[in-house]
Write a structure and sequence with these properties.
Layout: E1 14-18, H1 21-24, H2 37-41, H3 60-74, E2 78-82, H4 85-88, H5 97-112, E3 116-122, H6 128-132, H7 140-156, E4 162-167, H8 169-178, H9 189-213, E5 218-224, E6 228-230, H10 236-259, H11 264-273, H12 275-284, H13 287-293, E7 299-303, E8 308-311, E9 341-342, H14 358-371, E10 377-382, H15 399-417, E11 422-428, E12 447-450, E13 455-458, H16 460-471
Parallel strand pairs: 1-2, 1-11, 2-3, 3-4, 4-5, 5-7, 6-8, 7-10, 10-11
Antiparallel strand pairs: 8-9, 12-13
The structure holds 5-hydroxymethyl-3,4-dihydroxypiperidine (IFM).
Length: 474
Amino acid sequence: MTQSSSRSFPQDFLFGGATAAFQIEGAAFEDGRTASIWDTFSRVPGAVVNADNGDVACDHYHRYGDDVALMKRMGLQTYRFSTSWSRVRPDAGAVNPAGVDFYQRLVDALLEADIVPWLTLYHWDMPQAQEERGGWTVRETADRFLEYALTMHDALGDRVHHWTTLNEPWCSSFLSYTAGVHAPGRYSFGDGLLAAHHLLLAHGQTVRALRERDDSLSLGVTLNLTVADPADTSDAADRDAARRIDGQFNRWFLDPVFRGEYPADIVEDFRAVDAEAVARWEEAVTASDLETIAVPLDAFGVNYYHGELVSGHAPAVPRDSGQAPTDRKTASPFPADAGVHWIDRGLPETSMGWEVQPEGLTRLLLRLSEEYVGDVRMYVTENGAAYDDAVEDGRVHDQERVDYLRAHLSATLDAIEQGADVGGYFYWSLMDNFEWAWGYEKRFGIVYVDYDTQERIVKDSGREYARIIGERAI
Ligand code: IFM
């Protein structure tokens, strides 16, 4: 691309990188931390590829100083990380000062390096002891979560401005309690429904309480969202397939957060499949819960990886949606998926089997802007790609990831230029890490991690990102 065709980002646009506690920290049982649901689940035979776990991960707990220095060298303006509930309040019980201290040291190091800390309170690692009390299927868990959130605010409220309650509640509810693919590995549609509601309740209660403490904080939530296109827009069955996927994945979370209601069409779809589960869920959902969940926000996090083309008719060759790494899942457990078929549109794919569809990000941001967020500023809090990287002479030439990154940054700029208020972009992930059920098999980082030596190597994509950040243009 020539200089004359380069496009600049708005002055206040933030460039960041993202990680999550369980995926990078390691030190799983050090300094008072006790088991989270992922420590337990990763030890279930067949749950994680190669029986990997988070005991060591990227050893970030001990290497955070070097990792922050690396971020500074790359020019990152902000760093999105999560705190571990099990480290801060082991077993969802009393405060563990050593756990709190780790995050204070991390935040101080970030501030010292002029990197804005962007803190997520829940990125899936609930204390195992709380799961044994019912986990997200019980209302009490939202109250325990609030205690933990207030502990974090006591410790960091003077230094951290940006607070995100939840990362991707679709994953920590349906993927975890219904599909059994993520911890705690339950297989119940009703439990997934309850978990989603109590997660959202925890979000609302936490935003409300933090706001009461300090109305200058920037408070938000991050959802993972998709763009489901019908294979043939003139075909009613294809349009209905797209409606259902959009409904159970996007609107099930967007509607309560921004409108204080669950999408009625999806409630009826769910009822047709499992009336008893829906009745149980209806008993748990109160009008005041919905008011709490729709608490006003300052920031809205959008995680986008890929879109999907769906049909109501079976294609000659079924497409593998690339979702399940192990044999734990043989058929989609989601009621609204029944009769939905994924169509291969011939786009390039990442090593997750996810299509590379950057223009979907533009459309998603514009849709959110038009239909949901009002004047709440959006941030792309995750976007990234896994590829099979190799180290050659001390370098990682990951041209596909360079292209992915550039294409999605351009797509973000397209949305901004068409009127969406997007304040920043966080590449997922800063470094290779524990990719949940895929263990260490999938590498998303712009920094390569050698898990034998814990050496970090900035990949070509990391170099390109640093260059783009330096020029604030693409
Ligand atoms: O690694 C995950 C992250 O924890 C949540 N969002 C998707 C990423 C890639 O699968």
